[in-house]
UniProtKB/TrEMBL annotation:
InterPro entries: Cell_wall_metabolism_enzyme, Dup_hybrid_motif, G5_dom, LysM, LysM_dom_sf, M23ase_b-sheet_dom. Residues 258-302 form the LysM domain. It comes from Paenibacillus campinasensis. Keywords: Membrane, Signal, Transmembrane, Transmembrane helix. Residues 19-41 are annotated as: Disordered. Residues 309-389 form the G5 domain. This is Peptidoglycan DD-metalloendopeptidase family protein.
Amino acid sequence: MRGFKGSWWKDSALLKKEAQSSAESQASGSASKSPSHPERRGWWAKQSKWVWITAGAIIIAGSIYTTSKAYVNANTIPYYHVYVDGKHVGAIEDDAQLDQLFEAKQKEYQDKYPGTFMVLQTEGITTRADRGYKPEIDSEQTLQKLDGMLQAYARGVELKVNGETVAVVKDQETAQAALEAAKLKYAPDAAQVETSQVKFTKVSASASTDNKASEGSELKSVNIKESIELARTKASPEEVLDVEAAVQVLTDTKDQPVIYTVKEGDTISSIAQQYGMTSAEVMALNPEVEEKYVQIGSELRLTKPEAPITVRTVETVTEKQPSKPEIIVRESDELPKGTRKVVRPGRDGVKVVNYSVTKENGQVVAKQWLGQEVVQEALPEVVYKGTKVEKPAAPAVQASSSKQFAWPVSGARVTSSFGSRWGRSHDGIDIVGNRTIKASAAGKVVFAGEQSGYGKVVIVDHGNGYRTLYGHLNSISVRNGQSLQQGSKVGVMGSTGRSTGIHLHFEIQKNGVPQNPMKYL
């Protein structure tokens, strides 16, 4: 077209020039030659022929131009360039194809992670409209390339404990459900509990109160010690937890190093119990420490199993315990001297003991004795002690009272109970209170001195197979063979032997077998 147009304009100029020359000839020769002259008629015929040829060429050129332009217009189509963060990745025929790709990709991610709210990342993806003559567009290739670049994130909620993120869950409802389930896990009464989103087993109250059967318990409070914060976040879908997994993360423990300062009433066993360790483990972490010289204020290196959250519960526990009968000994000259005879067996009484128990993550951290009530009196046991000699005198029976065991210290507070603890036996109870130690019942001192593990010890025989042991004394106020009345001073509370704090280790034994003192006091 461009070549044709140039030739046409050239021919027109030549024709114009010839027409001007013809006009000039006509003007100069009009007088000599008439229009009817043969030469003039030939000239006009020749000129007319050129005019018709030129006009035909113009018509043909116009027709070709119009047809060519229509063809080009018919083959010039719109399309879209696709960019990701300003980088050209290809072209597509219609930008609606992008919307279809985004919708399909969103569904793909949501189907893959049904427990989350997935959001497709389309930021940075832009298009630019363009037009071109027969452009080479491969929409399928561009969309495939873009499909491989598309990513998605999960919309979730962070669970922060003291400002530190410990878990990511789907939404605030899931976060609250996880926190409530974590608290209920340590509520009293072992049971299978099923919330709307998770099923789990509670930690029983009896499992953490020295294995004693509780008559009942009343939960006073349950809360999480740490500061809890919920915040919206973007996360990888693999990081989003359901309720059950979030509860596990919140409550699973890991050993963390801690420094413990020894306080009054502490023992190796009580410290070990508090931190979920054995006495051997405590000593292994503190090889430079000799127990008998550890004083209040000393620092011990320990490990403590810690979970991200600490669930603290306070409950009132009521227990029924047997109350052992008094033993009444009467002398009788009808029995040979040195012999005994039970003439009336005793009968256990029943008492109700109330405790306030504070636990952290199911472990007892404080236990306060609130009082007790005797609901059934014990029937005393009557024993005859023979005094018969070679010349028997008239029968005589004299009564001597052997009252029930009393607390060996005033203002007593039990810091460690009787029973098995982490696979080891604790044969008595640990007590703090007034430092003056008194005889729990009348009897005779059968040992006063040093004993391995217990330091300075006094053992009193009360007859009928019963003995009491007083350990970790700072000083002893009695001697071997000395007779004592109930309430007589035995010694002063101390921290000798395997002890890391001032307290009394008190035992009641029957025929050499340790008994739970709480059944007798």
